Amino acid sequence: MTSTDPTLLPAAFADLAPLAARWARPTENERNAVRHAATAGEFAAFHDALLPRLDALLTYLRDCPPRPEDPAQRNALMLACAYAEAAPHHELYGGSSEVPFSFDARRFVADHGDEAL
Amino acid sequence: MQETIATLDHIRRSVPQIREELGVDPIPVGAIRDPAIYELEKERIFRKVWLKVATAWELPDPGDYKVKELPVADTSILIVRAKDGRIRAYHNVCTHRGNKVVPSKGFESFGRARANVVTCRFHGWVFGTDGALKSVPMEDAFGHLDKACLGLREIACDEWEGFVFVNFDPEPAQSLRDYLGDFATLFGGYPYRESTTAFRYSTVLKCNWKVALYAFSEGYHVPTIHAGSLPGFRGIEHSDFKLIGPHASSTIYGAGMDTAPSTGIFAGVLHGSDSHAPRPDLLPADINPKRRGDFQFELPNIFPNLLIHLASGCGYPGLSYFTHQFWPLDHGTTLWEGINYFRPAANAAEYAAQVHVNALHRNAWLEDTATMEDTFTGIMSGAIDDMQLMDQEFLIRHAALTLNSYLAGDKQ
Ligand code: FES
Ligand SMILES: [Fe+2]
């Protein structure tokens, strides 16, 4: 859980604030919960908006530490991580929130699942 | 290094040699189905051979400890870096009346022994990280207490390349180095300890531990079960078979896969960085000895329950290596642990890219694990008595034969 406003992004990415509000979360477990509840349309919209900006977003993040303290930098990283995990659902899994023909993802325990970025 | 190549030629096998040496007959599934076999496995394998339980970089400083629950050995163990810098292992059992010295949550947990001591919460007996019993409240009231003999019960513990192994045999038949044998040479020298960024997943599977182990021990399943997460995987070749005593190894080559657009961009970040780019030059000399450009990873089976897939960034972008372990909880229940290891990210872009690669790989594991409970149910049904194994499933054949020879008491 974060007390800072997740929609506060670096100026160049300020227009992505609604996506940040919908997807960006500090921990893998929280991002998983968002993913597991998302629809094909939402995955598509996230992908269509983010992919064209991904290069720029990663270029920006290259100048940030791996665990940024600055709120805008941290939110930009949370957004990138949310997309990192959401993209395959659109690109590979036909919009399904589950990996097709897979084990129940909720039974996988991530040691780092509650570690905040 | 040239010398190493020459010395390891004896572990290499062609396909005809593998067939000749291990046979081509179906392998009975009785060892998976029969609960009595599990009791024998506990006694003749899990209490006799070296088992990986930790890594040195999980315990960087003196006093750092890990508690691991090992139902397969009917115990909880305390692995601790002692004051002298050495990692030691003990039964996590208080010598007063048997309470757990360090209470634990889940199958493994970590902590730090302050002032290099751990204190049992029941009555306050204090043990040093060297195992010695240091102090006993109201010691005089015991009449006689031989503190020198009441240290924590030590378990043989040794390290190879920073992987920490224990052996429950009070007098192990072999040192860890001898047990690993040529495996230690084949996989030795890679800077494992530099890849300290770990994404660890675990789950409890309703299947015998060997079902889970075998599912991760072959490349035959990749084009089918991973059609979702590894689409268009081209030119997969599972070759360079090696037999190494109880262990075995092999190589997965492949021309790669149809990369999704997002993966291409994330991969670019890692491939553009010195510490995450493919480093075939860091592979030990006997792995991918021709330094083929389509090398993906080396797939070994370290008897009885460990796989270390060494990629050096050549397969999944930036992925240094990954490990699987399969801990029986009982005959039909297994704790699976899968860990992806990367070098630490130098910036937030590298970290986000690692999160992407980790997610792709975790999702592939979700495809792998999907088969295991069904496979076990099928084997338990009694409908089949054997498994049919093809060449690329030789690690399974070899592990099953090795298991049989341990159970028969041919090896110890
Ligand atoms: S059982 Fe540990 S102090 Fe009594
Ligand atoms: Fe697989």
From TrEMBL, chain A:
It comes from the Bacteria. This is Uncharacterized protein. It comes from Sphingobium jiangsuense.
TrEMBL record, chain B:
Its cofactor is Fe cation. Coiled coil: none annotated. Keywords: 2Fe-2S, Iron, Iron-sulfur, Metal-binding, Oxidoreductase. One of its GO terms (molecular function) is 2 iron, 2 sulfur cluster binding. Pfam families: Rieske (PF00355), Ring_hydroxyl_A (PF00848). This is Nitrite reductase/ring-hydroxylating ferredoxin subunit. InterPro entries: Rieske_2Fe-2S (IPR017941), Rieske_2Fe-2S_sf (IPR036922), Ring_hydroxy_dOase_asu_C_dom (IPR015879), Rng_hydr_dOase-A (IPR001663). Residues 50-166 form the Rieske domain. PROSITE patterns: RIESKE (PS51296). It comes from the Bacteria.
